[in-house]
Amino acid sequence: MRCLTFIMIAAMELGGTKTVVAVGGSNGTLVDEFRFPTTSPQETLMRAVEWFTEKGAPEAIGIAAFGPVRIDPKAADWGTLLATPKPGWNGFSITSFLRDAFPAARITLETDVNAACLAEARIGAAEGLENVAYITIGTGIGAGILCDGRLLHGALHPEFGHIRVPRKKGDDFAGICPFHADCLEGMASGPAIEKRWGKPAQELPVDHPAWETEAWYLAHGIIGLLAISPPQRVVIGGGVSLAEGLHEKTNTLVRELAGGYFPAVNESTYVVPPKLGQQAGIRGALMLTLTNFQPAPHPPRH
Ligand code: ZN
Q: How far is the CA of 191 from the centre of ligand 1 (A)?
């Protein structure tokens, strides 16, 4: 019997509070995964390397990382975390660490939200669509954008959370973004909700005015997306998105604000929850390794 070579694909989702490592297939199928808290860069990456080594040295590694991070494979500082407030991570190179551990592995790096967007667009709530936005609302706000079947990068990568949004009438909340105060993240992230209402999002009842306010800011952010890289569908995930009715409220407001101008929003399922839940990021990271939606990956070191 002829034996086929098994190509193991490894993936890592590096998050601000937790890290997920996995092995599986490039179609996003998870074979095995392990979750652990994100601590210092060296400790976190070493834990990932040890887990991968136990599974057999990987030939390909897909990484979905929190940002800001240099994802351009041609840049000298490819794989380096930039101005992150997370202690110890600013200037740390994720890819250098992994290339030292696995010099022959083909490494692909994306933002966590772009990876989640890819997974939702290929096997999730926006399956089959080529223009998709995946927004996450948790400790921050971010978005991954698939535009014409390719993940959007630009000069760095989208920073949707820092888009400027008009204030809701009568809203005098100062906002909590350390850079811009009242950008979208400053007005509508989990910590912003808690500071504004004195309670964390999960303790606010479904009829609390917090949710009208939340939908207002999200809908204005989505109008910005519609004007520049129009998605056919918007998937909203992250802890805050678990609030009952938030997707419907946001969908209604987006349609009102669109004023009949953006045809994509005429569907009642324009703003939807994720289908892959918490697994979108890691499954997207597996899918990064063999797909051809972005520039050629950084060559392995020989
Ligand atoms: Zn900001």
A: 13
Ligand 1 geometric centre to CA of 204 (Å): 24
- Tell how far the Cα of 118 is from the centroid of ligand 1, in angstroms: 25
Structural domain of residue 178, as residue ranges?
125-274
The C-alpha atoms of residue 108 and residue 282 are separated, in whole angstroms, by 13
If you measure from the C-alpha of residue 71 to the centroid of ligand 1, how many angstroms do you get, rounded to a whole number?
20
Distance 82 CA to ligand 1 centre (A): 15
Residue 268 Cα, ligand 1 centroid: separation in angstroms?
Answer: 30
52 burial level (CB within 10 Å; 0-12, 13-18, 19+): buried
* Interval 140-155: pLDDT, tens: 999 999 999 999 999 9
Residue 194 included in any domain: yes
Nearest to 110 by CA among 302, 301, 281: 281
**pLDDT for 173-184, tens place per residue?**
999 999 999 999
Report how far ligand 1's centroid is from the alpha carbon of 67 (Å).
13
Same domain for 60 and 200, yes or no, is no
Distance of alpha carbon 255 from its chain centroid, rounded?
24
Assessment of whether the complete model's pTM goes beyond 0.90: yes
**Which pLDDT value is given to residue 2?**
46
Tell me what the pLDDT averaged over the chain comes to.
92
Structural tokens at position 138: 């948790």
Is residue 299 within 8 Å of residue 60, measured between CB atoms? no
